[in-house]
Amino acid sequence: MKLIDDIRAVRSGHKRPQELAKSLIATGSAVGLLVVLLFPVYWMLTASLSQGVGLMSSDGIFADPSTYNLDAYRYVLIEDSTFREALLNSLVVVFVTVSVSLSVIIPGAYALSRRRFAGRTKILYGYVLFTQVGAGLSIATLIALYALFVNFGLDNSLLVLGLFYAGTAIPFNTWLLKTFMDNIPVSYEEAAMVDGASQWQVIREVILPLSKPGIAVVLVFTFLAGWNEFIIAQTLLQSENYTLSVELYSLATSGRYSTPWTEFAAFAILFATPVALIYFFAQSYVESGLSFGGMEG
Length: 297
Hints:
Elements: H1 2-11, H2 17-49, H3 71-79, H4 82-114, H5 120-133, H6 138-151, H7 158-182, H8 186-194, H9 199-210, H10 212-227, H11 231-236, H12 244-253, H13 261-281, H14 283-292
Helix pairs in contact: 2-13, 3-13, 4-7, 4-10, 4-12, 5-7, 7-10, 8-9, 10-14, 12-13
């Protein structure tokens, strides 16, 4: 272990005690921060396995481990149909969001990265503008969208909601993928063309394979845009078309006198699991894409 090696180095005089102390403090701080960040997840997991409807037992903030069971998950997945309906609605929204976004982002990023055409600079500035002013105009935009969708009878449409999410995700993610493609040497394309490859073959066999990390980042971000968003969905959708995020909020506020916290915790864990799995399996691509895309911390 590195700690044992450091102690031996201090004893042999190859390393100063101050350096060992700094390393121990940094490691301890990192572990403490990790514990703080993971504590809510651990608490929600234990709450979803607890008996009854409370988040805490009479002996402390944690439920009694001897009472752990899967009743809350059984209720959410089998007995109550709202989760399955909301899951289907969320999948529809996510499919529309991701498919429409990628169909615009990938060719748009390639064109902005590799082509020089009239108005290119203005388009780039426009993309930057749309990525920066969205938060400041969120309330006004929400009101305008609600009025517009209601007037056209589109206020309860999963398809329209997915298209809206795609529209909000395209500017930032196009800029991000364009920045990633800028790091791919043009010489790769030139070499492929010298070998007789067509422009489409260059894109398919050179640009897209080398852009996998950037595309993975865009895929995760657009998925999150359709999966996690709550305010727009809660405003525009009616109960039969609720997505998982809105249904989760509805579950927390549905009780007249109390909230079924164990079911809520199980619902929240199931809601967060796909995001965790996607990031886990795409972690290497995401880290590489963010690094080459200029977004590393």
